[in-house]
Amino acid sequence: MRIVCIGGGPAGLYFGILMKMLDPTHVISVVERNRPYDTFGFGVVFSDATMDNMRRWDPVTSDTIEQAFNHWDDIEVLIKGRRMRTTGHGFVGIGRKRLLNILQARAEELGVELIFEREVNSDLEFPDADLIVACDGVNSKIRAKYTEAFEPDMLMRPNRYIWLGTNRPFDAFTFDFRKTEHGWFQAHIYKFEEGAATFIVETTEEAYLAHGLDKMEQGDSIAFCENVFAEILEGHHLVSNARHLRGSAWLSFPGLICGKWTAFNGNSHVVLMGDAAHTAHFAIGSGTKLALEDAIELTNQFKIHGATKDSIPAVLKAYEELRRVDVARIQNAARNAMEWFEVVGSRYADTLEPEQFMYSLLTRSQRISHENLRLRDKTWLEGYERWFAERNGVPATNDRVTPPMLTPFHIRGLSLHNRIIVSPMAMYSAEEGVPNDFHLVHFGSRALGGAGLLFTEMTCVSPEARITPGCCGLWNDAQAAAYKRIVDFVHRNSQAKIGIQLGHAGRKGSTRVAWEGMDEPLPDHNWPLVSASSVPYLPDGQVPEPMSRAEMDEVRDQFVAAAKRAAAAGFDILELHCAHGYLLSSFLSPLTNRRTDEYGGSIENRARYPLEVFRAVRAVWPEAKPMSVRLSCHDWAEGGNTPEDALAFAKLFKAAGADLIDCSSGQVWADDHPIYGRLYQTPFADKIRNEVGIATIAVGAISEADHANSIIAAGRADLCAIARPHLADPAWTLHEAAKIGVKQIAWPKQYVSGKSQYEANLERATAGGKA
């Protein structure tokens, strides 16, 4: 084949090398705009997995690269006068120029043609090419020419950064955070060769402008950074090699993903690779890793399908399908890390103590979890667990340190013995709204299972407030008595506390129970629906009537009456359901609130009625008992609420007396498109907790003790609500504690005889024996 790689970075060079190794008869050219030894930036970071992959494909190149590597295990963090260090993180770095020189030499040795100082403006300059690899960077001219084919989605991120270097020696990957009169600056520092380190300085757009950095030349910008980071530089200077940049040399990071990575120009197949196809923020250092792994996978597909012209379409199809998955995974982690640095000042640096700040930094991408930190640096993690436990009233003992999820939590007069919640889950099993023996067993078994708090399913404040005929209610004394029986059982037989979630289905009411058709209208005996506006949940669903003022008063009073019954029944906490498209949620979302009166329009107007209900309930709910509010923190639909809107609502509810925000999302609009993933809703709890200053509950795709410990230890939430795992395992908390080796957690006295056997079975299974 005739192959042309446009762009002489790691992607194009390595692909040329691998394809020449696969079949030396290929005619391969790598075309680069710069001179042979020109490059910009300083060092790049590799992962061990990428190196293992490179060893399998080209041991010669990988051996040469490894000889030039600088390896380090430690991460050091400087903030608020503290210097903290942890080990076991295993980074390798190499100078970008050195890496390119190694790849250039290997390519020439194998017979790849290297063409320098040629600016390529079009793929059509190579009419004889069978395959054109566009690896010409994030500002790819080839991608720009075929925008409709490649469907690029690029978003410039809000922070500013400048890529510098220093000759000051560093023996750890170092993060230095400094606060100026206009905001926080952070430095990402790592050694890439003897006597040289990359030194990236990052800050917010606001701080960048306030300091006048936009008006400075490079020299002045560098002098500014030397002054901010004078302590860690210890008299050493910062330098730039970005001679091609005008002005201050500060950049904004372009977040890029393409809808498609391949095209046909009528003569040649064109494929994107590296930064031309996707970017990953430097916060996790994966840009070069992705570029090299693109090259490996494209070569691998030629090896599988055949390295011929006829195989190109099948190869490109398989390449894109496979790489898209891995790139999405890396980009998701990079996005988490990037967003952490974008808000680090206001959200974390100003609010968290240095110990917790460091934990948050280490787990910012959500790829490194609590137990993973234990594997990396057990001493550091156990020291942090001890610090966290003592901060939360757990005295130090010779036993294993209490992990974060099992530390107590106090709010108003409520004390929880741990931070795990059985999330509200609809059982659709009530009779005329009355909880029955099923509910007693359901809640009772989960209370015995070790959770610190369990919530009822959404309990409806009137017959017309129900989602289905099987929903629980609290509009009469019989229902209150049935609930009191459950509350008394929980209090009498467990350490758990129990809360009630009050709600009104609104436009999502009068539907079948879940197993007969989720959200489908009842075939008969429907009741009238009310909502903020006449917007049905399903296109063919029952249309609700917009609430009148009289109806708003009536429903508010129904919430108040239910709250009084809940207090009399002995519930420990009350949650107001303002999420998932139900009645109060329908007022909050612009998708469902189309009103033109004082209850529609602005955020303050849309929140007006839910706040009226909240204040009325708070007035009758016992002062010593807390109240939480469940919010849909993202509608996941165009024109709907975003996390910024949820932040505004949380502030309003906090001002009205809320103690906790339960951070869920979605289910407001039937055609929503959530972006699922592990802990995918936790960022909402993190944002509200640390920007509003209110305790939060994280919920959604939390399924292991490792998840809960990571969330709570990092200060992303104060409590973790576990839903489906509690359906599968009522004793989830006890079992998860045993899985991570915590033996001091108390089991119900009736079940203690099973505790040691369960723990022994886990130990045998871990050791490779048969449990």
UniProtKB/TrEMBL annotation:
InterPro entries: Aldolase_TIM (IPR013785), FAD-bd (IPR002938), FAD/NAD-bd_sf (IPR036188), OxRdtase_FMN_N (IPR001155), YqjM-like (IPR044152). Residues 406-733 form the NADH:flavin oxidoreductase/NADH oxidase N-terminal domain. Gene3D superfamilies: 3.30.9.20, Aldolase class I (3.20.20.70), FAD/NAD(P)-binding domain (3.50.50.60). It comes from the Bacteria. GO terms for molecular function: FAD binding; FMN binding; NADP binding; NADPH dehydrogenase activity. It holds the Pfam family Oxidored_FMN. Residues 3-325 form the FAD-binding domain. Signal peptide: none annotated. NCBIfam families: PRK08255.1 (NF006101). This is Bifunctional salicylyl-CoA 5-hydroxylase/oxidoreductase. The lineage of its organism: Bacteria, Pseudomonadati, Pseudomonadota, Alphaproteobacteria, Hyphomicrobiales.
